[in-house]
Amino acid sequence: MLCHVAGVVPITTADIDDLVCTAVFFAGCNFRCPFCFSSDILDFKQDFSKDIRIVKQQIERNFPFVDAVLFCGGEPTLQKPVLINLAAFAKEKGMKVAIETNGSKPNVLRELLDKHLVDYIILDLKSPLNTDNMTKTLRPLSTFFFTIDDILASIKETMALLKKRRDDVGLIIRTTVVPMLTYRKEHFLEMAYDIKDLDAVWELRPFVNASSVVSPRFKETNPPSSEFLRGLKKVCLAEYPDMRIRIKRYDTDCNFCRD
Ligand code: SF4
After folding, report:
1. What is the tally of structural domains in the chain?
2. Fewer beta carbons below 10 Å: N end or C end of the chain?
3. What is the pLDDT of residues 160-180, one digit of tens each?
4. Structural domain includes residue 73
5. Nearest CA to ligand 1 atom 1
6. Residue 258 within a domain
7. How many helices (DSSP H) and strands (DSSP E) are in the chain?
8. What are the distances in angstroms from CA 6 to CA 25, 187, 190, 216?
9. Ligand 1 pocket: which of 124, 177, 212, 213 to mutate (most atoms <8 Å of CB)?
10. What digits encode the pLDDT tens for the residues 24-66?
C-alpha cells in the first residue's frame, strides 16, 4: 500500500498523559490555515509517497522505547486506509494510538472508534464555531470542494461524536492563540462554551512565527506572551471553573527521520 508520510519522529512526549510517543507526520491537508507552520508538508507531493512497509519499519524500531504512536500531520484522516492500517499495526504490537486531527472527517474517527483503534484524540479547534471566525481562520483548499459551512458542520459532527463516545477515548482540545485571528477573550469564552461539556483537557498554545508559516504576514507577527495566555485562561476559568485548561508551547525542533 502506498502512503504519503512526510516523516517519523522516533521519540517525543507529545504531552499526552506522560506517554512517550513515536510521531508519524502524514503529508497533505485539506486546509491552509494562515498561521500553520507546517507549510512544507501540506501537499501530497511525490517526495512523500512511499510504501507503508517503510513507515512500519520506522515505527517498529522505536517500540522498545515508547508507549504510543501519534498520527499527526498534515491531516491524517485524509488517508483513511493508511491510517487504519497503521493504527491496527500499532495496536497489534501493544501500543496506544493517538490521532491529532482538524475534525473535518467525523466518519473516519467514527470508524477508528468502532474498531477500537484509537486511545486518544487531539482535536485542533481553530476558532469559535461560527462562519465569520472560521472564514478568517481556515482556508479550505478549493480542490476538496467544500465550503466553510460544510467544514463547520463536519467539526460540529466530530464534537457530537466525541461527546457521545467520551468514555471510549482520551480527549485533548488544542487551540493555537493567534494574534489578529483567535486572540480575543470573547473568542475563548465562545469556544469554552462550545467544549465545556466534553470533559476534555483544553490546551492553549501560542502560535509560532517560523519561516515555514503559510501566510507571509505571520512571519513578521510576534507570538503572544505566556502572560497573555494566562490572562485568557483566567477569563475562561472565571466563567467555567471546572474546565481543565493548560498552557503549552509547540516543539518546533522535532526532526523527522526520513529514511
Ligand atoms: S494547522 Fe493543521 S489543519 Fe491547518 S493547515 Fe496546518 S496541518 Fe492543516
Report:
1. 1
2. C
3. 999 999 999 999 999 999 999
4. yes
5. 36
6. no
7. 7, 9
8. 6, 33, 34, 23
9. 124
10. 999 999 999 999 999 999 999 999 999 999 999 999 999 999 9
